[in-house]
Specification:
It contains 7 helices and 19 strands. It is α/β, with parallel strands linked by helices. The chain folds into 2 domains: 5-114 and 241-309, FAD/NAD(P)-binding domain (3-Layer(bba) Sandwich); 117-237, FAD/NAD(P)-binding domain (3-Layer(bba) Sandwich). The radius of gyration is 21 Å and the shape is elongated. Bound molecules: NADP nicotinamide-adenine-dinucleotide phosphate. NADP nicotinamide-adenine-dinucleotide phosphate is lined by residues 116, 118, 150-156, 158, 175-176, 180, 182, 202, 239-241, 283.
């Protein structure tokens, strides 16, 4: 086994890269296990207009590539492996990535969350080309156009309310006849003249892959089996998120919704020396800039932890 690292960062979205920049500049020689598909959720978007510092916005993948280069520039070592198991009961901590085993005095978890998807082939092909999982990121592109939101929970209602300020009309497609979202959000959505609900309905297919953009969706009513094609410019899938915490179950305390529990106002998990940053511990804000902010916090907290626990 190689020497014990000071900091290992697991995951490579805005939280992971920011933690890497800070840790590298603090001379902690961080090792980043980026995963085999690095970059996180921004790799699934096109133009990002709400990340500060880019007057006219920046493409999501380009932003992530820039953050990666910045982290490397300061000496972050990167390995494109998925972490398969961790053991936080031992000190130093043990991290396995495929056949390789690493040891570290501190760990920053930045594995993010994944949007749940409908699973239609056209959905992934048109992701960032009319299909989106983030209204605050992409709603602006559908100003005065036809927007559809899929889902019946608070996320779907929040997205619909946000999008109603931009779109011509917002249709919310829900697979049942009753919403799961909170009463207050339901009332707001029902009162909004731009929001219409399509009950007991699912999105059966999305067109038009050949044109490389969303032009319409095929809907199916689950009660009547009736099918319908509706012109749509932007389709927002808001059926929930899944934090990427499977490998941390039993290692750090998770919340009932499976996000990592951190001490309020910090990135400290239930295990001293293990920190969590970004969407893996944030089910409220879920923005690239907030993820980057908590990545910075995690690196600073790891540095302080090392100073307090590791003799120089
Ligand atoms: P959620 O509450 O789990 O709701 C997911 C919705 O998507 C449900 O209506 C579900 O339908 C539907 N759905 C799931 N899989 C589907 C599929 N394959 N096809 C079609 N529809 C599908 O998730 P969420 O809305 O993201 O909310 C998660 C948590 O965050 C909740 O506790 C929520 O209150 C909270 N949150 C709060 C706010 C706020 O207060 N402003 C905003 C966002 C989220 P069924 O109802 O039929 O299961």
């Amino acid at each position: 086994m190689a020497t014990t690292r000071k900091v290992i960062i697991i995951g490579s979205g805005p939280a992971g890269y920011t933690a890497a920049v800070y840790a590298a500049r603090a001379n902690l020689a961080p090792l980043m296990l980026t995963g085999i598909q690095p970059g996180g959720q921004l790799m699934l978007t096109t133009l990002v207009e709400n990340y500060p510092g880019f007057v006219e916005g920046i493409q999501g993948p380009e932003l992530m590539e820039t953050m990666k280069k910045q982290a490397e520039h300061f000496g972050t070592e990167m390995i494109a492996e998925d972490v398969t198991a961790v053991d936080f009961s031992k000190r130093p901590f043990v991290i396995r990535a495929g056949e390789r085993v690493f040891e570290s005095h501190t760990v920053i978890i930045a594995t993010g969350a994944s949007s749940k998807l409908l699973g239609l082939p056209a959905e992934s092909k048109l992701m960032g080309r009319g299909v989106s999982t983030c209204a605050t990121c992409d709603g602006f592109f559908f100003k005065d156009q036809n927007i559809m939101v899929v889902g019946g929970g608070d996320s779907a209602l929040e997205e619909a309310l946000y999008l109603s300020r931009l779109g011509r009309q917002v249709d919310v497609v829900h697979r049942r006849a009753a919403l799961r979202g909170s009463k207050i959000m339901q009332e707001r959505a029902f009162k909004n003249p731009k929001i219409k609900f399509l009950w007991d309905t699912i999105v059966h297919d999305i067109l038009d892959v050949a044109k490389g953009k969303v032009t319409s969706v095929l809907l199916k009513n689950l009660k009547t089996n009736a099918r319908e094609e509706r012109p749509v410019d932007g389709l927002f899938v808001a059926i929930g998120h899944q934090p990427n915490t499977q490998i941390f179950r039993g290692q750090v305390e998770l919340l009932p919704n499976e996000y990592i529990k951190v001490n309020p106002g910090t990135t400290q998990t239930s295990v001293p020396g293990v920190f969590a940053a970004g969407d893996v511990q944030d089910h409220v804000y879920r923005q690239a800039v907030t993820a980057a902010g908590t990545g910075c916090m995690a690196a600073l907290e790891a540095e302080r932890y090392l100073e307090a626990t590791q003799p120089h």
